[in-house]
């Protein structure tokens, strides 16, 4: 399985659009891995995770051919993860594609509500059966092409219908857990019953080095707690790749180069835009 990060920032991006803070100024100067666009990742060629406004930039930067993408898991409706208006570019007459192309978006009821107006009455009126949405619920396991996916309840802005996902291709298992607080006990209970083993665990690290003083995200200390519990409870071992991802300029005055050694010391890789992991 090939896993690639396209966007690794929280909502503002790094540097943030207007921001003049020290971290944004340093990131602009350093460039390269210090620059982060909004959240998106892909498994192999066909399964996209999230659809932010930055998708178009990712297509150009990473040479993504959207004709290869047939499934898109959406974590929640926040704009750094979902830009429903972007679906208009799939209309007949705008996107000239081979007959039979189809993409399904998966997400919570809130995600479906956000996407539906851009499919019904827009794509549909254009005679376009290329796209549909499928509502999934927390703790539901469902097929996505050749993959098996379980949706898990994220602890994050409830109005955004937040889910995070475990994704298996039958051989390898990925946990993509972003825009969530430390997981609820119900998630740990499910894993006690189902005993998954994760080859790759990507954890929300919005707060990086700062203590989390609110509900909805994690930082390195919480990532370490998740990792240690997964090791103790058998969902991971020394071969599991743990990655800190989804960074904010407000996460404790660190850019990529500052954070890499801090994360490495605790057994984590630090994500960057374009990072590819072969599992
Ligand atoms: Zn986010
Ligand atoms: Zn800033
Ligand atoms: Zn969010």
User: Structural class given helices, strands, pairing?
Assistant: alpha/beta
Distance between termini? 5 Å
Mind describing the biggest β-sheet?
Answer: 7 strands, mixed
The counted number of beta strands is 14
CATH C-level class = Alpha Beta
The level of helicity is 10-25%
Q: Give the domain tally.
A: 1
Mean pLDDT: 95
CATH homologous superfamily - what is it?
A: Ribonuclease Z/Hydroxyacylglutathione hydrolase-like
Number of helices: 6
Ligand set: zinc ion
Topology record:
Elements: E1 2-7, H1 22-30, E2 40-43, E3 47-49, H2 55-62, E4 71-73, E5 103-107, H3 109-123, E6 131-135, E7 141-144, E8 147-153, E9 163-168, E10 173-177, H4 185-194, E11 200-204, H5 220-233, E12 241-245, H6 256-265, E13 269-270, E14 276-278
Parallel strand pairs: 3-4, 4-5, 5-6, 10-11, 11-12, 12-13
Antiparallel strand pairs: 1-2, 1-14, 2-3, 7-8, 8-9, 9-10
The structure holds zinc ion (ZN) (3 copies).
Residues 76, 78, 156-157, 160, 179 line the site of one zinc ion (ZN).
Describe the structure.
The protein has 279 residues and is α/β, with parallel strands linked by helices. Helix content is 24%, strand content 23%. The longest helix is centred in the middle third of the chain and has 15 residues, at 109-123. It starts with a strand and ends with a strand. The mean pLDDT is 95. The structure holds zinc ion (3 copies). One zinc ion (ZN) is lined by residues 16, 19, 21, 23-24, 249.
Q: Main attributes?
A:
alpha/beta; single chain; Metallo-beta-lactamase, Chain A; seven-stranded mixed sheet; 279 residues; 6 helices; 23% strand; globular; binds zinc ion
